[in-house]
Amino acid sequence: MSFINYLSREINCKIVYYGPGLCGKTTNLQYIYNKTNPEAKGKMISLATETERTLFFDFLPLALGEIRGFKTRFHLYTVPGQVFYDASRKLILKGVDGVVFVADSQIARMEANLESMENLRTNLAEQGYSLDKLPYVIQYNKRDMPSIAPVEELRSVLNPNGVPDFEAVAPTGDGVFETLKAIAKLVLTELKRGGAGGGAPPRR
Amino acid sequence: MTNPQMVMYEEEFNQIQAIVDRLVREANAQVVFIIDKNGQLISASGETDQLDTTSLASLTAGNIAATGGIAKLLRENEFTTQFHEGERANIHIQLVGNRVILVVIFDNKTSLGLVRLRVKKASEELNSIFEALLSKVQDPNHETPFAEITDDDIDNLFND
Ligand SMILES: Nc1nc2c(ncn2[C@@H]2O[C@H](COP(=O)(O)OP(=O)(O)OP(=O)(O)O)[C@@H](O)[C@H]2O)c(=O)[nH]1
Ligand SMILES: [Mg+2]
């Protein structure tokens, strides 16, 4: 849920990177962190296991610049992709303004992608959100790996509605900022439409 | 859409800041801050210079979310208070009106008893301010600066 502060003239939004285990969510945030000017970013926090799997979340606060005198700040979060961390995923989704689904392009991970996307839908629905109404983009990551599915196939399975989608190789940054810009744009456009404001049920 | 917006205006902010400033003094605390349940920092007071308040806000919200999840599993209402004791710093976390989180960081210059007492009073006051703020935001006529922005404004954000 975006937070507009008229006093500090800031607008804060929450973006969540979702996707199956090891698809490259944390790597996306690490790349963004490494390539962002120090004054535009805060500390990146990773609550991870000893084997560097996300345990609860990664968090990266970013400042993207000003619109009409309002500073735009984005809080990027990743969820833990491993199936059994579902309770934590639900918590991270609370108050989300936009979702990036990171898919693993490897043929062997197709099923995991689908399962994770289904899980995203379910968890959003539990909180009264619909994936079809939320700012949402898809990233086909790991395009550098052998045995990957062609993009057309990934698209037909994972993106039937034709939301903006991007090919990526997260460790080298290919497609990482394109993905981020696309979701940031959608979130701001939604704000402009006033979607985040009117007609909302009281928060509990 | 399902996202109710959190908005902060000058009037309410000043009221909130006054309570937070007073709490630092009256509880003899090092730092007091208020965050919303999604981890956005709303207001802070005290010795905040050395503190990474953005990180603290996100971790505290994560912590509250996790304990809230545990409470649900135990069919408990939300655990509204948490206290962590360290060697030099102690942290008292209070959920206010199930909406915002009031965090007090203090050392041995004060006592948990005093902190609790002052937090209780401050929570009640904060709760009514946030109630009022929320109803203001839910008024469909409330202004938003974003109705005015153009697609070009958004594009320009990314042209550097
Ligand atoms: N070759 C290649 N490796 C990648 C790519 N993206 C991520 N990786 C690697 O895949 C591994 C897992 O990446 P993470 O970013 O930790 O995956 P995650 O989605 O955060 O995983 P969980 O935290 O378990 O949900 C790491 O070793 C990354 O370096 C990619 O595009 N190409
Ligand atoms: Mg991860």
Q: How does this model look, in words?
A:
The complex is a heterodimer of chains A (204) and B (160). With 204 residues, chain A is of the alpha/beta class. Chain A has a single domain (3-193), classed as Rossmann fold (3-Layer(aba) Sandwich). Helices cover 30% and strands 27% of the residues of chain A. Chain A contains 5 helices and 8 strands; from the N terminus they run E-E-H-E-E-E-H-E-H-E-H-E-H. Chain A has helices spanning 25-35, 86-93, 110-126, 151-158, 176-192; strands at 3-5, 10-18, 45-48, 54-67, 70-78, 98-104, 136-141, 165-167. In chain A, strands 1, 2, 3, 4, 5, 6, 7 and 8 form an 8-stranded mixed sheet that branches. Chain A starts with a strand and ends in a 12-residue tail after the last helix. The relative contact order of chain A is 0.18. In chain B, 38% of the residues are buried. Helices cover 44% and strands 21% of the residues of chain B. The two termini of chain B are 31 Å apart. Chain B has a single domain (10-157), classed as Beta-Lactamase, CATH 3.30.450. Chains A and B meet through strand 1, strand 2, strand 4, strand 5 and helix 2 of A and strand 1, helix 2, helix 3 and helix 4 of B. Strand 1 (3-5) of chain A pairs parallel with strand 1 (6-8) of chain B. The structure holds guanosine-5'-triphosphate and magnesium ion. Magnesium ion is lined by residues 25-26, 54, 78 of chain A.
